[in-house]
Specification:
The complex is a heterodimer of chains A (458) and B (276).
Chain A: H1 26-50, H2 53-87, E1 90-94, H3 102-110, E2 120-124, H4 133-136, E3 153-158, E4 161-166, H5 171-199, H6 219-250, H7 252-257, H8 260-264, H9 270-307, H10 319-344, H11 350-371, H12 388-398, H13 404-429, H14 432-436, H15 443-451
Parallel strand pairs in A: 1-2, 1-3
Antiparallel strand pairs in A: 3-4
Chain B: E1 12-23, E2 27-39, E3 44-48, H1 55-62, E4 70-75, E5 78-79, H2 84-90, E6 91-95, H3 106-116, H4 121-134, H5 150-162, E7 168-172, H6 180-195, E8 199-204, H7 207-213, E9 216-221, E10 224-229, H8 231-238, H9 243-256, H10 258-263
Parallel strand pairs in B: 3-8, 3-9, 6-7, 7-8
Antiparallel strand pairs in B: 1-2, 1-4, 4-5, 9-10
Helix pairs in contact in B: 3-5, 8-9
Classes of the chains: A mainly alpha (458), B alpha/beta (276).
Chain lengths: 458, 276
């Protein structure tokens, strides 16, 4: 049937044999015409979609503005939380405090950084030989002291050493543990130095084994690991988010605007029209993803510098690896575009389509989250699982691993998924109901339609 | 301008054309049943019938928006079932529901359709000049369709339907929703197409429009064609003077026929299992 439409003269296209005007074989010409028509539709859809303020805003403007603002807020929030933590006063009860040496008490009370930050307040609990330390955590005052805040820890000393009881499920419990441990360790160091000095030895002589931990991993590799954990999931999420509005706009939006019938009147096979639409949605998804990544790359540095204070970890976007990921990302974008376009085509308007796409988005995002879990790596088997495979492939590429077989399998799997989704989209959107009813398509109708031959070739 | 067409073959030919929809509420509903129709070049034919008679479904089948359930049809020499793309290349279709892409300008809409009709840039440019002049689009050619008035949109829609200079025009209630001036422009446009030797098939429920424009009228009711003929032939057949009475007479005749009475009260429901 498709050939027939090339057999007419004039505007109707040349025949399948050698075309008298172009001297091209019919099959080549048909392919050229198909490509030209598909690109015409894509161009029109892109122009129309980007003229929609909401889509243009969410695709282009939002990522540029969102990440710097979001990251600035996160950095400020981190600094505020960190400041709050440092200023938090922690009360630790001490059992049998009267028996403790003066030096120890002073070391515990003052700490390594005297001042309002990291303050540890010791509360004398008196002699408590018969009461278990965990019960003493309930106490709110010491011997002869006024009522105070609840204790964050209880410290007791015995012949076998010091015992600290804390409740780690409480934020102050962790703070108490950290501050007490730090101060005790410092006090022990001081005692060792004094003993060594008294005996005329070097301080190191009193510690037979000293363990020094050395991290030889380059700081850039640590940054790469961090990126390899985050970027693949972001890539999938951004792609799905980027395809969302265009997919709704080009399918359910057409029905809402009353242009579905106009589109069905286009003098080319509906498959070509659908290809053009899906290509437009995929292009917008890729544009959105690229913009998001750029904005993320530019603004993330500031956030990480704030969070990783004192660390030398450097974060550089690995452009070469990202370029290698790009072809897989494009195939994934086609898959997402076809699926979202088809699904939102079942809705009669924008609002309904948005509600329908919510669960579909999760179908894409959840496997992406699974893909960043530690221990899950790209294998030939996992390379065949759509969505998860693109996350794992991106992860391995960002870590600098080269797995040609797995990458080929990922590409094949994504290509097949995209093709199946496109077939699904074509069947769904070329059905008569798309043009002729204002009703929502039920799942029952959908499956009965998919079982039939459909209308795709018209 | 006149069109060189083969006048021996009808421009539109339909034989036993039937369309059955599956309706969740009413089961299977025949919107059009065994419709026969022939329309020639240089002729304006009107499908006259009330709302729900099956006019729109018929025109949508002939313009390949819908596939017929059974029966066959050819439009401008191409089969509507086996060669729908050629049909779409050769016809201009316009209805109240063929909206313009709101975010494109009028010029972009015309160029989009022209290019997909396979026109090269030179041909498209020349054709654009012709339709811009013919429908007086110059003042709003670069305006987005969403910003145009109803009358301006209608003119752009007509230009969109004829940008590829089609031999056959199929118009579904083309004057519905238009003001007097715009409706009058539309009527003049249909008349000009006939003078050029093209075939125009249009549906209407406005009797005055049918009386003024149609060389022949097909009276459609409950998915069937009750009668086809010139206005004189239809008047002679019923003995009525006014077209409205002619229409009523044919409908009454059909409703009282034994075949139709047997199917009442839901004459167009087939194999109907109402949705529970």
């Amino acid at each position: 049937m498709r050939d027939k439409h090339h057999q007419d003269s004039g505007h109707e296209g040349p025949g399948t044999s050698l075309d008298p005007r172009t001297q091209l074989p019919g099959a080549t010409l048909a392919m050229t015409q198909r490509l030209a028509a598909t690109l015409q539709v894509t161009g029109k859809e892109l122009r129309e979609t980007l003229r929609d303020r909401q889509t243009a805003f969410t695709t282009l403007v939002l990522p540029i503005c969102m990440y710097p603002v979001l990251f600035w807020i996160m950095a400020q929030g981190f600094l505020v939380l960190q400041g709050q933590k440092e200023r938090t006063e922690v009360h630790v009860g001490v059992v049998n405090q009267g028996l403790l040496e003066e030096d120890l008490l002073r070391a515990m009370d003052q700490g390594p950084e005297p001042g309002p930050a990291n303050r540890l307040v010791l509360v004398d609990l008196g002699f408590q030989d018969d009461v278990p330390p965990e019960d003493l955590l309930e106490a709110t005052s010491g011997v002869g002291e006024p009522q105070g805040p609840p204790l964050a820890g209880v410290l007791s000393f015995g012949p076998d050493g010091a015992h600290l009881h804390v409740n780690r499920s409480e934020p102050k419990g962790e703070l108490a543990e950290s501050r007490v441990t730090k101060r005790l360790a410092q006090h022990v160091d001081q005692l060792r130095e004094q003993a060594a000095e008294a005996g005329g030895h070097a301080a190191s002589a009193l510690q037979p084994l000293y363990l020094e931990r050395v991290d030889v991993g380059p700081e850039s590799d640590k940054g790469a690991l961090l990126l390899a954990t985050l970027l693949p999931m972001l890539l999938v999420t951004m792609c799905v988010m980027g395809a969302f509005f265009p997919a709704v706009d080009l399918s359910a939006g057409e029905r809402e605007r009353g242009t579905a019938e106009t589109t069905l009147l286009l003098p080319v096979p509906r498959l070509w029209v659908l290809q053009g639409k899906v290509l437009a949605v995929a292009s917008l998804a890729m544009i959105a993803t690229t913009f998001n990544l750029l904005a993320l790359g530019i603004s993330a540095e500031g956030l990480l510098a704030t969070i990783l204070q004192g660390s030398n970890i450097t974060i550089n976007l690995p452009w070469q690896a990202l370029l290698a990921v790009a072809p897989l990302a494009l195939l994934f974008a086609l898959f997402v575009a076809a699926t979202l376009t088809a699904t939102s085509g079942m809705a009669r308007n924008f609002k309904e389509a948005q509600a329908m796409l919510g669960p579909v988005q999760m179908v894409f995002i959840l496997p992406a989250i699974a893909g960043i879990m530690p221990g899950i790596d790209l294998t030939p088997g996992l390379a065949l699982v759509p969505v998860l495979n693109v996350t794992l492939a991106a992860k391995s590429m960002l870590l600098g691993k080269v797995l040609p077989l797995e990458y080929a399998l990922v590409a094949g799997s994504l290509l097949l998924s995209a093709w199946l989704a496109l077939k699904f989209a074509v069947r769904l959107l070329s059905r008569e109901a798309f043009a002729t009813t204002s009703a929502t398509i039920s799942w029952r109708q959908l499956f009965s339609f998919l079982r039939s031959d459909g209308d795709a070739s018209r | 301008m006149t069109l060189d067409t083969n006048t021996n073959a009808p421009a539109i030919h339909a034989e036993a054309l039937t369309k059955i929809f599956s309706d969740p509420e009413r089961g299977k509903v025949a919107a059009v049943q065994d419709l026969d129709l022939a329309c020639n070049y240089g002729e304006v034919m009107g499908l006259l019938g009330p709302n729900g008679a099956g006019k729109t479904t018929t025109l949508r089948m002939l313009s390949t928006i819908l596939a017929p359930t059974r029966g066959r049809g050819t439009v401008a020499g191409a089969d509507i079932t086996n060669d729908p793309i050629t049909v779409r290349k050769r016809i201009g279709f316009l209805s109240g529901t063929t909206g313009l892409y709101p975010r494109l300008t009028a010029q972009e809409v015309l160029q989009y359709f022209g290019r997909l009709h396979g026109m090269d840039e030179d041909t498209l440019g020349r054709r654009l000049e012709v339709v811009v002049k013919a429908f007086d689009l110059k003042d709003f050619l670069l305006g987005r369709c969403e910003s145009l008035s109803t009358g301006q949109k209608q003119r752009v829609s007509i230009a969109r339907a004829v940008i590829h200079d089609p031999r056959v025009l199929i118009l579904d209630e083309p004057t519905t929703g238009l003001d007097l001036l715009a409706a009058s422009d539309m009527i003049r446009f249909v008349e000009s197409r006939r003078e050029e030797g093209r075939c125009v098939l249009f549906s209407t429920h406005i009797l005055s429009e049918a009386e003024r424009l149609c060389d022949r009228i097909a009276i459609v009711h409950a998915g069937r064609v009750l009668a086809v003929g010139t206005q004189e032939e239809l008047r002679e057949d019923t003995g009525e003077k006014w077209l409205e009475d002619v229409f009523r007479a044919f409908v009454a005749r059909a409703d009282n026929s034994p075949e139709q009475a047997a199917d009442q009260p839901h004459a167009n429901i087939v194999d109907g299992e109402p949705h529970k």
